Amino acid sequence: MQRLRAPRLGQPSVHNPLRMPLPGTPHSSYPNPPEERSDGVLRHLSTPGLTVGLITLWVALSPSLLPRAWWMTAVNVGVSLAYGYVIGSLLGRFVSWLARRTDLRVEINARSDWSLRTLWLVFLIIVSGVVWIRSLHQQEQISLVAGVSRGGALNQFIGVLAGLALFWVLLLIGRGLRRLWRRVKRLIEPILPGPLEGVVAALIVVFAVLFVSETLVYQRALNWALGNATQLSQTSPEGRTAPPETERSGSPASYESWESLGREGQMFVSDGPRASDIAGATGEPALDPIRVYAGKAEHDEIEDAAQAAVAELVRTGGLERSVVNVATTTGTGFVQEWSTQSLEFLTGGDVATVSMQYSFFPSGLAYISDRDTPPRAGRALFEAVEAEIQALPEGERPRLFASGESLGSFGGQGAFDDADDMLARVDGALWTGTPRFTPLWSSLTESRRQGSPEIAPVIDNGQNIRFATRPLELTEDFYGAPFVDWEEPRVVYGQHASDPVVWWSWDLLWEEPDWLREQVGRDVSPDLSWERWVTFWQIASDMPLSVDVPPGHGHEYKNEMVPLWAGVLGMDPLADYSEIVATIDTLVLDR
Question: Which InterPro entries does this one have (predicted)?
Answer without folding.
Answer: Alpha/beta-hydrolase_catalytic (IPR027787), Alpha/beta-hydrolase_N_dom (IPR027788)
